[in-house]
């Protein structure tokens, strides 16, 4: 799960189907889909959002959504 | 004359280019969703029109600002499209380009941000890109203006090709679906059917509505269903149509991009990432934000702004006033004219202009926040807090903008995807203390809280934010229940703001304030002065017998429990609805004083410090100004919500001032 990665760890997205449909659409818009490589840049405290980098761009999503995105560590 | 529409992903520099090509100034900032409505400008050649649109990732909209673009496509005339691509993010940007090519309008591509791409080690073969898309590609750097003239020539000169519209093969099922729709629509429609069909299959609600005006709903539904079923059978997968379409486009784009670009691995950690390690740090993120806000605030109110305003005040009340007096005497003006000009206009307009330095400092910092890229980080850092009150971090951007002026703040709420959160943001942004309220605080703290000036004003700003958060919680538990809250935000790379861009952005915001002083406040001052000059018993009456006193006196008793039951206070609250800074002009005129310092002296006789604080809190909350109310109506499209925004503000303001004043008295404060 993307939400389980620690700061600095990388992963490849395996399955994104169980994320919220809005979130999925936006991630798709930003070019993040199954197969994309992602790297966790920072995790905000108190269950706050995570900042993720993929293909040279950074995005922020909530931890709860990140926990619904399956990744494989690389 | 031609209409040329600018279209591209968010934050790719469309508006920067628009400003360059038309010589105008529209709002530029380094985050996604700065432009939220259509803007029209004239090319420097004086003939053709350029239309700036909000940024979109695809033509299938999620939020209201994106809907503006789809609407434009369906319903408005244009001859050419100018598609701006961010060279450092080609893959993502080309998804939109493919859709534009499917639409089949003449397209020219402006390849922007080449400097950023170069820094990342990305080399783009422009000729090859142009060849594989079948359209002209012109390199530009919108920020510096490089290549803009050539681009202008290219787009305004004669005919432009439409590019290749069959770059993607979507598979048997979808292509058959397109043909079927083509048969159904033959001859009935002016838009290209291939484009309509693909948008329909992607789930574009605007296109669906549009098609429903031509075909029966059942037929459309049936077509979508049969294509979905066929596609899933053929591919033996459960993927929805939009995902299939997206994947097919990605495959085509991959081919184009790998042929046209080369990338050198650049092992250097970009500066942006280094900065982000600090400002979005687990422990430092929020403290850094608060410190920045504090510094910005202190510079505006204390360290820099205060001495400047003071100097301006002594100039206006000293040399300027005596100059005008002398000039009037030399011209032999009547006493009426002299009084009108000196006690009405100079007092009213001058009283507001005194605060120009502070307002400009505030706008400078807001522009700095907007242009640096920090805005999106603030949204990220604040998301956890906002989530706990039923909003998301993105709602913090309209609120920050609202500190400058509530009107653009409310407009900025368009980028919030879910309707409920957007409505809440619109309703709560007026609680952010805008720059027009700043003069009122400055005046009152100068009179009553000289020692703790900054602390008192800061407490009011914080009060506004806290009340907004509490109300958000209340609203999301009562009026606006349900609906999940989502948060996805793009974090753009930091950009070092350029002096010129910063100045233009500051000036553009501050100009409004100066202009308002010269028009609205000017006219208001004349009116107020006349109302104070005339009364039921004739003209040149004592102020307490004037119409103004009469009007104010009707409502004064209402305000007695909260500490300011004078006719002067209620009269100025009325004018404050028109524009918050009018409160200052009204007071200057009513108390009949030439400058800020003597007004402060007089105020001390009419208010106690406790009443003054209660008055400031009331001003902070009591009502959105007229322009804000108009914007709320425009954005919500609902009389009920507009009325609600006024009513709840009045109630909250009254209750809070009552608590402050009566509670303070119980505690023995005065
Ligand atoms: N480095 C660099 N920055 C640029 C260039 N063009 C624009 N910018 C910056 O990119 C940011 C976004 O510019 P805008 O013109 O507001 O972008 P936009 O496409 O209108 O954005 P939206 O209205 O949000 O869709 C600003 O901070 C600009 O200064 C460029 O060629 N190079
Ligand atoms: Mg723009």
From TrEMBL, chain A:
Pfam families linked: FeoA
Domain Ferrous iron transporter FeoA-like, chain residue ranges per copy: 1-73
Example GO molecular function: transition metal ion binding
Presence of keyword Iron: yes
Keyword entries, A-Z: Iron
InterPro entries for the chain: Fe-transptr_FeoA-like (IPR007167), FeoA (IPR052713), FeoA_core_dom (IPR038157), Transcriptional_repressor_C (IPR008988)
SUPFAM superfamilies per record: C-terminal domain of transcriptional repressors
Listed SMART domains: FeoA
Cited PANTHER family: FE(2+) TRANSPORT PROTEIN A
Protein name as catalogued: Ferrous iron uptake system protein A
Species this protein is from: Mesobacillus selenatarsenatis (strain DSM 18680 / JCM 14380 / FERM P-15431 / SF-1)
Taxonomic lineage of the native organism: Bacteria, Bacillati, Bacillota, Bacilli, Bacillales
UniProtKB/TrEMBL annotation, chain B:
Record-listed Mg(2+) 2 binding positions: 19, 23
Record localization: Cell membrane
Gene3D superfamilies: 1.10.287.1770, P-loop containing nucleotide triphosphate hydrolases
Pfam families: FeoB_C, FeoB_Cyto, FeoB_N, Gate
Principal location listed in the UniProt entry: membrane
Residues reported in the UniProt entry to bind GTP: 8-15, 33-37, 52-55, 112-115
Stored SUPFAM superfamilies: P-loop containing nucleoside triphosphate hydrolases
Domain FeoB-type G: 1-161
Binding-site list for Mg(2+) 1: 22
Membrane topology of this protein: Multi-pass membrane protein
Keyword Kinase: no
Keyword hit for Secreted: no
Listed transmembrane segments: 283-304, 316-337, 344-366, 395-413, 425-449, 455-475, 517-535, 547-567, 613-633, 645-664
Keywords, comma-separated and alphabetical: Cell membrane, GTP-binding, Ion transport, Iron, Iron transport, Magnesium, Membrane, Metal-binding, Nucleotide-binding, Transmembrane, Transmembrane helix, Transport
InterPro entries on file: Fe2_transport_prot-B, Fe2_transport_prot_B_C, FeoB_Cyto, FeoB_GTPase, G_FEOB_dom, Gate_dom, P-loop_NTPase
GO cellular component annotations of the record: plasma membrane
GO molecular function: ferrous iron transmembrane transporter activity; GTP binding; metal ion binding
Similarity section: Belongs to the TRAFAC class TrmE-Era-EngA-EngB-Septin-like GTPase superfamily. FeoB GTPase (TC 9.A.8) family.
Protein name per its UniProtKB record: Ferrous iron transport protein B
Protein's organism: Mesobacillus selenatarsenatis (strain DSM 18680 / JCM 14380 / FERM P-15431 / SF-1)
């Amino acid at each position: 799960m993307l939400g389980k990665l620690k700061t600095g760890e990388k992963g490849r997205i395996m399955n994104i189907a169980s994320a919220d449909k809005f979130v999925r659409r936006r991630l798709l818009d930003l070019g993040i889909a199954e197969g994309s490589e992602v790297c966790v840049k920072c995790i905000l405290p108190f269950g706050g959002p995570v900042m993720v980098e993929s293909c040279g761009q950074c995005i922020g999503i909530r931890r709860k959504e990140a926990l619904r995105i399956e990744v494989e560590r690389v | 004359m031609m209409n040329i529409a600018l279209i591209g992903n968010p934050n790719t520099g469309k508006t920067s280019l628009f400003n360059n090509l038309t010589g105008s100034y529209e709002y530029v900032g380094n985050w996604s969703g700065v432009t939220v409505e259509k803007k029209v400008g004239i090319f420097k050649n004086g003939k053709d029109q350029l239309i700036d649109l909000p940024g979109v990732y695809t033509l299938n909209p999620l939020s209201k600002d994106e809907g503006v673009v789809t609407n434009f496509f369906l319903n408005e005339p244009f001859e050419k499209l100018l598609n701006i691509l961010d060279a450092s993010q080609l893959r993502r940007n080309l998804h939109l380009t493919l859709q534009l090519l499917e639409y089949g309008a003449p397209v020219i591509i402006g390849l922007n941000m080449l400097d950023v791409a170069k820094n990342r080690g990305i080399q783009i073969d422009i000729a090859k890109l142009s060849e594989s898309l079948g359209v002209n590609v012109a390199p530009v750097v919108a920020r510096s203006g490089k290549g803009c003239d050539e681009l202008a020539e290219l787009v305004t000169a004669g005919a432009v090709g439409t590019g290749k519209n069959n770059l993607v093969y979507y598979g048997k099922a979808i292509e058959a679906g397109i043909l079927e729709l083509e048969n159904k629509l033959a001859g009935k429609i002016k838009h290209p059917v291939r484009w309509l069909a693909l948008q329909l299959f992607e789930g574009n609600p605007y296109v669906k509505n549009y098609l429903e005006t031509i075909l029966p709903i059942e037929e459309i539904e049936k077509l979508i269903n049969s294509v979905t079923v066929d596609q899933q059978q053929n591919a033996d997968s459960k993927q929805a149509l939009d995902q299939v379409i997206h994947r097919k486009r990605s495959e085509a784009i991959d081919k184009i991009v790998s042929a046209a670009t080369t990338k050198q691995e650049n092992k250097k950690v970009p500066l942006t990432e280094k900065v982000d390690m600090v400002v979005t740090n687990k422990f430092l993120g929020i403290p850094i934000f608060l410190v920045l806000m504090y510094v910005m605030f202190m510079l505006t109110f204390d360290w820099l702004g205060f001495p400047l305003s003071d100097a301006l005040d002594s100039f206006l009340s000293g040399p300027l006033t005596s100059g005008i007096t002398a000039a009037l005497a030399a011209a032999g003006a009547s006493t009426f004219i002299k009084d009108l000009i000196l006690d009405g206009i100079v007092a009213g307009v001058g009283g507001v202009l005194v605060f120009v330095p502070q307002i400009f400092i505030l706008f400078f910092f807001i522009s700095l926040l907007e242009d640096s890229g920090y805005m999106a980080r603030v949204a990220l850092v604040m998301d956890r807090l906002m989530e706990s009150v039923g909003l998301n971090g993105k709602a913090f951007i309209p609120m920050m903008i609202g500190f400058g002026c509530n009107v653009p703040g409310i407009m900025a709420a368009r980028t919030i995807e879910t309707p409920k959160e957007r409505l809440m943001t619109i309703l709560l942004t007026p609680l952010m203390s805008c720059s027009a309220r700043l003069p009122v605080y400055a005046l009152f703290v100068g009179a009553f809280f000289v020692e703790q000036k900054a602390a008192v004003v800061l407490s009011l700003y914080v009060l506004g934010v806290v009340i907004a958060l509490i109300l958000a919680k209340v609203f999301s538990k009562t009026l606006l229940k349900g609906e999940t809250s989502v948060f996805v935000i793009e974090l753009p790379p930091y950009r070092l703001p350029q002096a010129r861009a910063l100045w233009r952005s500051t000036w553009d915001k501050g100009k409004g304030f100066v202009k308002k002083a010269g028009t609205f406040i000017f006219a208001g001052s004349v009116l107020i002065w006349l109302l104070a000059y005339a009364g039921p018993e004739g003209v040149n009456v004592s102020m307490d017998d004037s119409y103004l006193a009469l009007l104010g006196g009707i409502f004064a008793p209402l305000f007695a429990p909260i500490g300011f039951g004078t006719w002067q206070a209620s009269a100025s609250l009325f004018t404050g609805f028109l524009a918050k800074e009018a409160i200052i002009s009204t007071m200057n005129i009513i108390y009949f004083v030439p400058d800020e310092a003597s007004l402060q002296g007089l105020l001390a006789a009419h208010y106690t410090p406790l009443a003054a604080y209660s008055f400031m809190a009331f001003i902070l909350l009591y009502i959105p100004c007229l322009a804000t109310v108009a914007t709320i109506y425009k954005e919500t499209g609902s009389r009920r919500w507009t009325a609600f925004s006024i009513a709840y503000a009045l109630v909250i303001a009254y209750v809070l001032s009552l608590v402050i004043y009566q509670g303070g008295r119980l505690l023995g404060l005065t």
